[in-house]
Design a protein that fits this description.
heterodimer; A: 159 residues; alpha/beta; two-stranded parallel sheet; 4 helices; 7 strands; 27% helix; flat; B: 185 residues; Metallo-beta-lactamase, Chain A; six-stranded mixed beta sheet; three-stranded parallel beta sheet; 5 helices
C-alpha cells in the first residue's frame, strides 16, 4: 500500500478539535488578470495551484477542415495562491470577459467554456503554457513508429 | 454538507443527529457546519476526547430514532476511537438489520490499521477483534454500510459496491478468511 498522504497526520486532530466552519473562513477575493499579475510580482508571494492535474492539459483540436487550434489551459497562473508572510488567504482569478456558447456544432459549448477558463489572462495578452496531452492512438503511433522514441516515465513509485 | 441537507429536504425529514464513526484522517469533516445549520447534536466516541460540544458514546450506548434503535459498538483498528452503529428497526423486529461500519469493514476489504504508523501493530490487533468479535457476531442478513468504496486509501482493494451483507463478507472477504490473529496482524 502507498504510505498515507501527508495530510492524514493532521486531519484527525483537526476533526477532534472541531474544524472551523466554512462561514468563519476568509472570503475568497476575486481578482482581475492584471490584479493577479501584480500580486504575483511580489517576490514574497508563493503561488499554490489547487486545480487538478488535468487542468494543465493542452489539447489540439480541429474545428473544421483546415482550421485547427491548440488551447493552453493555464496561463502560468493558478486558481489560488497564498502569501507566506501574511497569514493564509486565497484568491480566485475572475474572467474579465466571457463568451457564451452559441448554438452550433456539438462540442462548441464545451470549447466556449474552455476558452472562458483562460480568457481573462489571455485576453490581457499575457503568455500561456500547457502540458501537451496525447491520445492513446497518438501515443501508440509514436512508440510504434519508425522514429527513435524514448519513453521516460516520471511518475512516482506509488503511481 | 449541502448534499445531506438537500437529501433530507427531499425526504422531508429533519437532521437531528450527527453520528461520527471516527475522526477521519483523510478529510476535514463538516460536522460543525452541519450542526450549526441544522441544530443537530454531534455524537462521537468518548475515547476520541473531542473538544467541541458533543454527546460522548461508548460500547452499549443506544440512540433512539422513532422506531429505530442504534446500538453503539466500539470497533477500533482503523482508528483508535472507531465506532460502528447497529440498527434495529423495531417496526419489524428486535433483531439488527443494518450496521454502519465506518472504515472498519468495506465491501471486499477491511480498514487499513497503518495510517497511524506509531501504533499500527496495536491497531491491527484491535482491528482483528473488532471484526471477528464484534461485526462478525452479527447475523448474516445484516446489511453493511461502509464509508468508502473503491478508490479510497483507507483500504487496500475495496470493492465498487456501496453496501453488502455480513454473510457475503464473512464468506468472500479475503481479509476475513485469515483466522489466525498473528497472521492477520
Amino acid at each position: 500500500m502507498p504510505p498515507a498522504p501527508d495530510h492524514f497526520s493532521r486531519c484527525s486532530d483537526i476533526n477532534r478539535r472541531g474544524p472551523a466552519r466554512l462561514d468563519e473562513l476568509p472570503v475568497v477575493e476575486e481578482l482581475s488578470a492584471s490584479q493577479f499579475r501584480e500580486r504575483m510580482s511580489d517576490p514574497e508571494m508563493v503561488v499554490l495551484d489547487t486545480r487538478s492535474y488535468h487542468a494543465y492539459a493542452t489539447v489540439s483540436t480541429s474545428l473544421a477542415p483546415g482550421i485547427s487550434i491548440s488551447m493552453a489551459t493555464f496561463p502560468p497562473l493558478p486558481a489560488g495562491f497564498c502569501p507566506l508572510t501574511k497569514g493564509c488567504c486565497r484568491w480566485r482569478m475572475t474572467t474579465t470577459r466571457r463568451w457564451k456558447p452559441s448554438p452550433g456544432p456539438a462540442g462548441l459549448g464545451w470549447i466556449a467554456l474552455w476558452v472562458t477558463w483562460t480568457a481573462a489572462w489571455a485576453v490581457e495578452g499575457y503568455g500561456t503554457r500547457g502540458v501537451q496531452l496525447l491520445s492513446a492512438r497518438d501515443f501508440h503511433e509514436m512508440i510504434a513508429g519508425a522514429d527513435d522514441f524514448v519513453l521516460v516515465d516520471v511518475r512516482a513509485p506509488q503511481e | 454538507m449541502d448534499l445531506y441537507i438537500t437529501a433530507a429536504r427531499a425526504l422531508r425529514v429533519d437532521i437531528t443527529h450527527i453520528l461520527q464513526t471516527h475522526l477521519h484522517a483523510d478529510f476535514i469533516s463538516g460536522h460543525m457546519d452541519l450542526a450549526q445549520k441544522t441544530g443537530a447534536r454531534i455524537y462521537v466516541a468518548k475515547s476520541a476526547k473531542c473538544t467541541f460540544d458533543h454527546v460522548p458514546l461508548s460500547e452499549g450506548d443506544t440512540i433512539e430514532l422513532e422506531d429505530m434503535v442504534l446500538q453503539v459498538l466500539e470497533t477500533p483498528g482503523h482508528a483508535p476511537e472507531h465506532l460502528s452503529y447497529v440498527v434495529i428497526d423495531k417496526s419489524c423486529s428486535d433483531s439488527p438489520v443494518r450496521v454502519f461500519v465506518g472504515d472498519t469493514l468495506f465491501v471486499g476489504d477491511v480498514g487499513r490499521p497503518d495510517l497511524f504508523p506509531d501504533i499500527a501493530q496495536e491497531l491491527a490487533g484491535q482491528l482483528y477483534h473488532s471484526l471477528h468479535d464484534e461485526l462478525l457476531q452479527l447475523p448474516d442478513y445484516v446489511e453493511v454500510y461502509p464509508v468508502h468504496r473503491a478508490g479510497s486509501l483507507c483500504g487496500r482493494a475495496i470493492g465498487a459496491k456501496w453496501t453488502n451483507t455480513i454473510g457475503y463478507e464473512r464468506r468472500f472477504n479475503a481479509a476475513l478468511q485469515i483466522k489466525d490473529k498473528s497472521a492477520f496482524v
